[in-house]
Amino acid sequence: MPGTDRRAWEVVLESIEADLLSGRLAPGDHLPAERALAADLGVGRSSVREALRVLEVLGLIRTAAGSGPSAGAIVVALPGGGMSALMRLQVAAQGFPVADVVKTRLILEAAVVAELARASEPAGDTGPAGASAHPDLTGSAQLLDAMEAPDLTEAEFLALDTQFHLSLATASGNQVITATMAGLRSAIEGYAQAGALGLASWAETSARLRGEHRGILAAIDSADPELARALVVSHIEGYYAETHDRPLHARPPAPEPT
Amino acid sequence: MPGTDRRAWEVVLESIEADLLSGRLAPGDHLPAERALAADLGVGRSSVREALRVLEVLGLIRTAAGSGPSAGAIVVALPGGGMSALMRLQVAAQGFPVADVVKTRLILEAAVVAELARASEPAGDTGPAGASAHPDLTGSAQLLDAMEAPDLTEAEFLALDTQFHLSLATASGNQVITATMAGLRSAIEGYAQAGALGLASWAETSARLRGEHRGILAAIDSADPELARALVVSHIEGYYAETHDRPLHARPPAPEPT
DNA sequence: CGTGTACTGTGGTCAGACCACACCCGTCGC
DNA sequence: GCGACGGGTGTGGTCTGACCACAGTACACG
């Protein structure tokens, strides 16, 4: 019979996935207790725990010890953490080249700002089927204000920068893009910080970045998709080239032929 | 002291991530045996196994029992499987709306074919820094030939369709996009199949899809980025609208107010 | 009626045991 | 001398049982 050859924890994972797909489990629901799940599926508790651990890292469930309504494993479906862990580790393991991460981020963010600009059309929207009239960018603007503080360290500035770019993705309303952008961003966080330390003049660079941010937001507000897209492209390509001493689309330096 | 309050399996995960980042671990390397790892880090073997399970699902390692050089846990960094699992489960758990998945796929694939068309410029490339001259699309073309077989079932056709679209991403050479496209595609595989069964005329639709595929490839070959992009957009939007009875950018029908 | 304490069930962790497996190497037979 | 065969050894895979910390709950007590 099929299924017997699968590893025990895979059986658990598939069972839970089937419950999700069939609607027996929905966000907010409690999973059965680990011991009960083990008994139901005929596997050991440790196998159940391995499956639950995977689901937790992937952002599908949240676990809490103790008793009461908030205890146990609860379906949450928050993809951000899982995507970040996946991309961070793949970059660490050299499965994802940093340049590919940046290129992908560039594509997604350019599309996001172009759509935001399109949706920002003052009158007549994109039609009655338009996603959401006038996406909320007040949070993004507030982040830009916070970045004007003169005594920010590189790390603080970059943390706000991350939040700003992420807020644009959030404003687009696309859950997949939001989570992916969060993952891409966290994957290269270390590189962005390392690059900032090697810059000739941080004050000069950060001033330029601030100005570019304002320009992007202005282009969105003025409903100019192509301008917004172009500004994002030069913003990201510029920072990459400045911190890596080569343009984004160049071949990386040949690996040492040791 | 920090780190003590973290859960045991997180300690293992962080330890391995640190080894990857520092270069102590690289693709192809063996991880220490589970029992040794547990002893080194002062945790139980079950905690080590939970961490390794996560790494395995994320595509970071491959495990094999037995003895010899191929046994044990080996760093592999194959992001496709992990991305697929993550997106499939997030769609199942309603963290990712299907429409957002399709929209994201549309953005990425449009960018991919546009870049392929740009790189297909017959002479003078994109300069000495160009990614790779003339990306290899023979595999993509062969898949289209295979899709001409008249006796294909819906499932077989869609499987080839998945491979075709994935081959385009692969041809771009971008690891992140390739893995992401694989994940997006596997996440909506079930919906694509269910949609195919509800079509008025599968023969008619599949014939149209075949023609559109040829057109996309032709646009790439003729180095026309904008045409390739437009064809991809209408290809994906068309299939979505046909199988969901509404355009991709429309609001989904209001949920039942039960 | 309020308060505090024991109880119960949860996830978190560990230790130990057994299994199947695959390689390695020594022995045995030719 | 050489090949085949068999046990030895170490691996991941799994299960069992136990203990802990924790948080809510029920009940007895004042």
- Tell me the structural class of chain A: mainly alpha
Q: Please report the two chains with the greatest interface, counting residues with C-beta closer than 8 angstroms to the partner's C-beta.
A: A-B, 59 and 59 residues
Give the overall form of chain A.
globular
Mean pLDDT of chain A: 92
Helix content of chain A: 55-70%
Using only C-alpha atoms, the radius of gyration of chain A works out to: 22 Å
What is the number of helical segments of chain A per DSSP (H or I, 4+ residues)?
11
Helix-strand pattern of chain A: HHHEEHHHHHHHH
Strand content of chain A: under 5%
Straight-line N-to-C gap of chain A? 51 Å
How many independent structural domains of chain A? 2
Number of strands of chain A: 2
Give the oligomer, counting copies of the same chain as homo and different chains as hetero. Answer: homodimer
CATH top level assignment of the largest domain in chain A: Mainly Alpha
Please name the fourth-level CATH homologous superfamily of the largest domain in chain A: GntR ligand-binding domain-like
| Physical arrangement of strands within the biggest beta sheet of chain A | 1-2
Which architecture of the largest domain in chain A does the CATH hierarchy give at level 2? Up-down Bundle
Keywords (chains A, B): DNA-binding, Transcription, Transcription regulation
GO molecular function (chains A, B): DNA binding; DNA-binding transcription factor activity
InterPro entries (chains A, B): GntR_C, TF_FadR/GntR_C, Tscrpt_reg_HTH_GntR, WH-like_DNA-bd_sf, WH_DNA-bd_sf
Pfam families (chains A, B): FCD, GntR
